[in-house]
Design a protein that fits this description.
heterodimer; A: alpha+beta; Uridine Diphospho-n-acetylenolpyruvylglucosamine Reductase, domain 2; Uridine Diphospho-n-acetylenolpyruvylglucosamine Reductase, domain 3; Alpha-Beta Plaits; 5-stranded antiparallel sheet; 16 helices; 18 strands; about 20% strand; B: about 450 residues; Fumarate Reductase Iron-sulfur Protein, Chain B, domain 2; Glutathione S-transferase Yfyf (Class Pi), Chain A, domain 2
Amino acid sequence: MLNDLIHLLGNDRVLTRIEDLMVYSFDSTATLGQLPVVVVFPKTTFEVQAVMEWARTNRTPVVSRGSGTGLSGGSVPAAGGIVLCLSQFNRILELDRNNLTLLVEPGVTTQQIAEAAAGVGLFYPPDPGSMKISTIGGNVANNSGGLRGLKYGVTRDYVMGLEVVLADGTVTWLGSKCVKDVAGLSLKDLFVGSEGVLGVITKVLLKLVPKPAARETMLAVYNNLEQAAQTVSAIIAHPIIPCTLEFLDRTTIQCVEDYAKIGLPLDAEAILLIETDGHPIVIAEEIAAMEAIAIQNGALRVQRAKTEEERLSLAAARRTAFSALARRRPTTILEDVTVPRSELSKLVKFIQQTAQKHQVEVGTFGHFGDGNVHPTFLTNEKNKEEMHRVEEAMSEIFDFTIQLGGTITGEHGVGLAKKPYLPRQFDEGSMGLLRLIKNALDPENRLNPGKIFDPA
Amino acid sequence: MNLAQHGNLLQNLDYSVLQQCMHCGMCLPTCPTYDLTKLERHSPRGRIALMRAIADDKIEVTRTFGEEMYFCLGCLACKTACPAGVDYPHLFEMARAEVERTGVLNSPSRKLIRWSILSVLFSRQPLLHFFGRLLYLYEATGIQALLRKSGLMKWMPKRLRQMERLTPTIQRRFSHELIRPDETPAAPQFTVGLLTGCVQDMMYADVNRDTADVLLAAGCRVVTPRGQLCCGSLHAHNGELELAREFARKLVDQFNLDEVDAIITNAGGCGSHLRHYDRLLEDDPVYSKKAAIWSSKLKDIHEWLIEIKFDLQLQSAPIQSHRQRVTYHESCHLSHGQGIVKQPRRLLQSLPGLELVELPESNWCCGSAGVYNLTQPDTAAQLAERKLDHILETGCATVVTANPGCLLQLQKFAEGRSLKLEVLHPISIIASALRKPKAI
């Protein structure tokens, strides 16, 4: 049965040994895993199409993945299924400087895209924490965010076109290089954030923007969380939209400093990392105004990055927050609840209280400017009783988030990890619509089955 | 030696060390073997997952697992990249030891080669020296050149040709012929013990002399015990922990630990192992205390010189570097293994007249990786060529690196391309400037 696949892709791109299956049985989400039966590495659209046809003939589920940095279990294999790994399908096809677009294959990493753009003085803003290795296919499928979402938006805002392979093997192109394009339904948007349940993304046309002329970065230090949250609300209400407004709590600061050793204040309860970019005159005004707002809202001190090196090390250190938190305990469970920004301090306070109530350790950081918070549970999956308390706390945080008009996931996707909570946020109508769409595109439930929701 | 009595080493590990990896994937872009293959099994995250699967009894220790553990360079770039602080060096040593314990890679010829090298050759200095002299004769008498010219080489198997190409160039005089057991400068401020190494002792005895000279110039009395054996890093990195412990005990006994302020190593690969004698011997009732003192005094030469502020002394010395533009290749076990990144650069930059040009991917493995260039010649060659390409990009005629394996790898592959590239230890550049002060 697998011979057809080997015939198609060659021996070295069809893996079936237990040692290979084992390492593709998980993504970056704690405690989730499932062995596939085979891992394949297509390098062309034709090969993806052929694998899909093989899967249809053999009634085998298909889960596509890139570098496996997902945080919701979205790319964890299906039982008895194929892993369609796109990491070797990774060429940059066209950089169009006249139209400011970049056409790439799905396995290109976010970092390579950022570098390709920067190489010609352009800018690709979305910068998820794992950008050094995450692939663009995965970014699009999860509509990934990052540290610059506040001013620049998320992956969706940069996707102009997609080539997708559908469950029945159809290859189709969605979107165009046109800045305006309202032909038909906005089909490409259906696939952005679809977590691999509707089709396989085989090409991505991205929008690039001019590179900002200058940047300023500052660090504001607080001895309580709410003052940091209030500062964020005050900056937004001013109104200033900086490109980055990141928050780290005490636990996170300590873990990050332990790894990066860049001199973060270990005695602080919270820090805000603020970056503004654009014309030098504008950002000089903005940074001064934000400095004043931070002080007015109780910042103990404010310091600006003096050199480019210092600026980069601050941003790089922030990107390691999630992984650095893993220093504390064996198991690290990261959430990405998001609320309207006006509700931020309520949510942060609630997270603290809930952690205390259930006696669980939580480190919180996140994109405060986006209202996107990452409460991170530091626990041990081997301890059943503690894991139960973690689940209780998590569940309460989800409920409270929904009460505040927020969402259970701002940027990681639902996948497996948040699937049980989606019906709390979505009404019957929305859940029904999800099933209708899935059923229309993938009636045999072949693509990434069991993720996001169960088909009726 | 017998590890069989210990049971599965990965199952006996503190499980939390394995759990520490939360598979975020931050190590992937820094791993040379993942970069070459884009296969998860060849990444640190993949390898740790396999080790954990063995600890969890989900898979057996198989031949494929064994091969994977030896496909890993052990360059430890993943250790630097890991925000979660996974102790990969420990996991890696344990995994290789488990591969040897279970014997999944065993074959008569592999056993014979490992036994003769690890247990015989490196255990006896006279034997090692004799072997070195033979090699020296092979090279100095012109037999090697004759053989290479004769065209006979092409009849040799590819593997053997790859190995011959890397034959170390042995120096005429070894360390004990160049360095007296006790050398004292005019006004000694410190006393240090000097490690001369095993391979380094024969291939780069001049680097050891240079190290002694620079230490003397820095006001250190240099004590260099005779008959030093291998530090055991070769053994520990190749799954022979018991042998490694024996070597460690012998070496510790050769130094008077109370007398010295520091024990100095100039080889990145050795230092990374020597530093951890405390852990290696922690269960040894007789040696655990001594090993702890040893580890607290063990210093890389660059680290020590910066600690005693020799950089300031260099800056104001009336000397001039003989080389103007120099680039620096980081030994993996110096930068990733020991975290010594800034010190060699700072020393070089302190040498009057020297411009340090940053090497792209300076901390990417050159493929030497202990005996990796012998066990995995193809991958090692790809990495060496990649390194040379970057060195050429800098336009420098001199590259410095602080590990005998890297020195040899770069020299041999530069010869292979007929490049006029000078490959030196950073300390040698400093020593030569100190020795022959240029008129300013």
